[in-house]
Amino acid sequence: MIDKLDFLLALAREKHFGRAAETCGVTQPTLSAGVKQIEEQMGVLLVKRGSRFQGFTPEGERVLEWARRIVGDTRAMREDIKALRHGLTGRLRIAAIPTALPMVAALTTPYRERHPHVQFTVLSRTSIEILDLLENLEIDAGISYIENEPVGRVNIVPLYQEHYRLLTSADAPLGDRDKVTWTEVAQLPLCLLTPDMQNRRIIDRLLKSAGAESRPTLESNSMILLYSHVRTGRWASVMPEKIAQTLGLTETIRAIPIVEPNAVQTIGLVVPRREPMMPTTAALVTEAKRIAPSLA
Amino acid sequence: MIDKLDFLLALAREKHFGRAAETCGVTQPTLSAGVKQIEEQMGVLLVKRGSRFQGFTPEGERVLEWARRIVGDTRAMREDIKALRHGLTGRLRIAAIPTALPMVAALTTPYRERHPHVQFTVLSRTSIEILDLLENLEIDAGISYIENEPVGRVNIVPLYQEHYRLLTSADAPLGDRDKVTWTEVAQLPLCLLTPDMQNRRIIDRLLKSAGAESRPTLESNSMILLYSHVRTGRWASVMPEKIAQTLGLTETIRAIPIVEPNAVQTIGLVVPRREPMMPTTAALVTEAKRIAPSLA
DNA sequence: CGGCTTGATAGTCTTTGGCTATTAACCCAT
DNA sequence: ATGGGTTAATAGCCAAAGACTATCAAGCCG
């Protein structure tokens, strides 16, 4: 029964019977039969069919919600019992927005001190994708913006605040300043993240509210790429303070506070709202609460 | 898998392999094998054995908690989908403390107006038993005292307040009074519920704090029995106002307010804390919230 | 020590679940 | 239109799981 619900989750992820079957480690006919069996038990069609996958019926969507809970709880139970016997083990899957990646180490390092047998997988994703992955049980925790609070069934632990800096060469325009305004920043040719990243949308909003338009000269979804351009001394970018520090400032590259307004965004840990949590996830929440004050 | 978890729940209820198997509709070896299989999957002994059932190991208790959630959610899912198709159907299982039984009709009657296809099972139980039944998924909702708030994973909807009355014949001692004190009441030979009922324990506490001892002449777990004694005119009892009204006052039997103190206990609906709830249970909560003000 | 209760074990049979191979429906490009 | 390519359903087969009956072993109690 639970395996069949898992089939359904895979189908929701992949939107394709064959691929869903593959991720479940079964063949396509097996997955088809499994889905059909749930439909018979429920007495309703759950999947809209027609020679190819066409999405779920309303009942199907509802069953999916339940399936996420049930499958999630089942896995959590297994982990829970395993932790009772062997301490914390297994793999903790985390996804973080690119600008938060440098802060992940602040979480994983003390975590590993306490629980050396836990392995980590850390993915760089957009804030939207993170919520999606959480929902589909593909990650155990996310690190993302937490302003628009409760999007879905998640719990939130604030971690730190993003402050924005203009990254530029000391001898470039504005490079000698102690602080700059958003209006001034808007005049520069910038390297920014692509618009699917919330960081970019936040910066766009700030530029716009300063009366300027966002017209970045270069877009990328990689902070490394943005930074390597800035390092040449010929480009400028806007980055959160923490990541700018981590990437390392040289004598020639400066990170200048941007004011008017002195914008702030809160970044936090996002975990599935499940009671109790998986033990590995619970330990991550504990760690987050522990270190949050020291990051403030 | 889910069936096996259900075996485990049955075993927790019955504390006996044979009887548990019977309630699950399987034979004893089948249940034994099922339990053993979960133990193998988890890699831990869950049940303490020794020629007869001796309770659960700590890991077993933990698995039980998860099993309750998972099995409960699975049933809720089935009900949920069924409700989407056929409207609300099925059986709603309620347990209430004896003194609250007359109020159940205030809930079931409007409920039935809206959802005529739902059938009811209403049990009279002690407040302790109600929490136990809720925990073990044997009832969908309870009606009980809600003072010592969150005992376990439940949600609560206040319904009304119990006020205490002395039930006695008009020509018996105190029978002509407009109100009496607890100290006075303590002097009478009373018919009260048995001490396993919380109502009795509350009354005992009130009598004690009035400096008197509780020495009921007659104890029973049935309100009907208590009332039938009072009706003879030779006995007296202490009952909540609502049930006294329902049982019917005659010209000779009076319900006299008891003061010093004018004690009050809140009675409420208690449902499993599950998100979302079973649709039939959710409808009951809606109904409870609707009628609560009119009972105040 | 012997009968009774309770849970485990053995042996048999049915059901379920998974696989491969094939078919049917549809999309689309020629 | 028509034929190739894709995608899900169906058929047929086999292995594994699950459930039942019958029996056994360990305690318990008189």
Question: Can you give a write-up of this model?
Answer:
- Two copies of one chain form a homodimer.
- Chain A contains eleven helices and ten strands.
- In chain A, strands 1, 2, 3, 4, 5, 6, 7, 8, 9 and 10 form a ten-stranded mixed sheet that branches.
- Chain A is an alpha/beta fold and 296 residues long.
- In chain A, helix 2 packs across helix 3 (28-42) and helix 5 packs across helix 11.
- The first copy, chain A, has helices spanning 2-14, 17-24, 28-42, 58-86, 101-114, 127-135, 182-185, 198-209, 223-231, 241-247, 279-295; strands at residues 90-96, 118-124, 141-145, 154-169, 180-181, 190-193, 218-220, 236-240, 253-259, 264-272.
- The model of chain A has no long low-confidence stretch (mean pLDDT 87).
- Chain A has three domains: 2-74, Winged helix-like DNA-binding domain superfamily/Winged helix DNA-binding domain (Arc Repressor Mutant, subunit A, Orthogonal Bundle), CATH 1.10.10; 80-160 and 266-295, D-Maltodextrin-Binding Protein, domain 2 (3-Layer(aba) Sandwich); 161-264, D-Maltodextrin-Binding Protein, domain 2 (3-Layer(aba) Sandwich), CATH 3.40.190.290.
- Chain A binds chain B through residues 1-3, 41-44, 58-59, 62-63, 66-67, 69-70, 73-74, 76-78, 80-82, 84-85, 153, 275, and chain B through 1-3, 41-44, 58-59, 62-63, 66-67, 69-70, 73-74, 76-78, 80-82, 84-85, 153, 275.
